Amino acid sequence: MAQSRTFPTPAAPKLGKPLKRAFFARSVHEVAPDLIGATLLVNGVGGLIVEVEAYHHTEPAAHSYRGPTPRNQIMFGPPGFAYVYRSYGIHWCVNFVCEKAGSASAVLIRALEPTHGIPAMRSRRGLRDERALCSGPGKLTEALGITIAHNGLALDAPPIALYARREKPEIAAGVRIGITKAVELPWRYGLKGSKFLSKPF
DNA sequence: CTCTTGATCTTCT
DNA sequence: GAAGATCAAGAGC
User: Fold this and answer.
1) Cα R_g (chain A), whole angstroms
2) Alpha carbon distances (Å) from A59 to A65, A83, A102, A186
3) Cα-flanking dihedrals φ and ψ of residue A53, to 5°?
4) What percent of chain A has pLDDT over 70?
5) Is the confidence at residue A24, as pLDDT, over 70?
6) How far apart are CA A42 and CA A4, in angstroms?
7) Whose C1' is closest to the CA of A89: which nucleotide?
8) What is the DSSP string of A149-172?
9) pLDDT of A150-177, one tens digit each?
10) CATH code assigned to A21-191
């Protein structure tokens, strides 16, 4: 530790009001862009949501497209809960369930701008560039400590907390990343100009 | 900078 | 047996 004296902790941005579960009880295509700029914390660690993607059961890229399975059952439940799945056998990815029970739609959280608990995130991810801490769906779950243990948890109760954005940001949209079906749907949303995206728009 | 590859769990064919 | 809502490391330019 080269640091020889105590520095003031950088002030984290002021949080908006807590998002209630009802926030998610509407079209996934309204919720997804509205999440850009909101703050996601798990046990007090997290940051600003800067990139998301919408998925809906009527479209073949969605896990719910072929009906319920043990993995995706949370997607078929009520809105306002976390759907966590194993990606490529190695990573965890987290979604927020939207609309209504049976609708099987969700928003994949793809990138955060780290604001809270950065030392904890660094320690979980290893020493890295701050821009790489949460710049991908598998990276941010590792940084926040999200695992299958969080599958099915409510989004408005500990250890998860969400806070509304305080100002409306400029939002970019584009095609989703890493899929081979329904590739043309422009259901990826991001904070315009953010340096913390998984990829530029 | 871009391209390739290995890691290895769940679902589907 | 193969593919997939991914990531990091290594080779090459």
Assistant:
1) 16
2) 6, 18, 15, 12
3) -140, 145
4) 94
5) yes
6) 30
7) B9
8) GGTT-BTTSTTEEEE--SSPPPEE
9) 999 999 999 999 999 999 999 999 999 9
10) 3.10.300.10
Compute the Cα dihedral for A168, A9, A199, A163 and give only its sign: negative
* Kind of pairing between the strands at A45-56 and A105-116: antiparallel
Provide the β-strand partners of residue A162: A40
Q: Compute the CA torsion angle A45, A109, A107, A69 (nearest 10 deg).
A: -90
Q: Measured CA to C1', what is the nucleotide nearest A69?
A: B11
- Dist CA A179 CA A175 (whole Å): 10
Half-sphere exposure of A136 (CA within 13 A, CB side): 12
Separation between the CA of A13 and the C1’ of C13 (whole angstroms): 42
Q: Indicate if CB(A84) is under 7 A from strand C.
A: no
**Segments making up each domain of chain A, as ranges:** 21-191
Question: Phi-psi bin for A60: left (phi > 0), alpha (psi -120 to 50), beta?
Answer: alpha
Structural element, H or E, at residue A28: helix A28-35
- Hey, what amino acid is at A98? C
Instruction: Classify residue A126 as exposed, middle or buried by CB count within 10 Å of its CB (0-12, 13-18, 19+).
Output: exposed
Q: Is the CB of A67 under 7 A from strand C?
A: no
Q: Tell the residue number behind the tokens 């320690």, with chain if given.
A: A123
